[in-house]
GRF-type domain-containing protein
Amino acid sequence: MSSSESSNFRHEWESCLYDCGDPTPLRVSTTPENPERRFYRCGWFDNTLGRKCNFFVWYDPPLTGRTRHVILRLKEENTSLCSELEQSFMQQTRLLEEDEKLKIQVKMLETEGRNMRMSVVERDRARYFMLLFLVIAGSLYFFLSWIMSLAA
């Protein structure tokens, strides 16, 4: 492409003023025929409100068939990757929520285990004192029986 052809498509301005006098921002095409191709178009272009301005000029040169195909394929791939990323994010959120629930369950089980250990210790302590009482009571019974046998 010669420099004169190139100058038909590339302009060094950031916005354009046309007959209507309004600034014209650089836009990006989203059509399958011209994917991601930049252009200037007046905001009043093809307006149905009465005021109309027909200013339209491409900023980028026309796309070749191969370029168009590559851009469309990359956009599809990007959409697919964005979808996968969103699904991964949703899965991560679910896993974090599940992790929090499991942490709560672990704390509850630790508390329950602590309470069970305490009840086992208390039960063992009660058994020990019961056994000690029986030993003392039995010893006292035999001691008193012996004393009574000596007195008789």
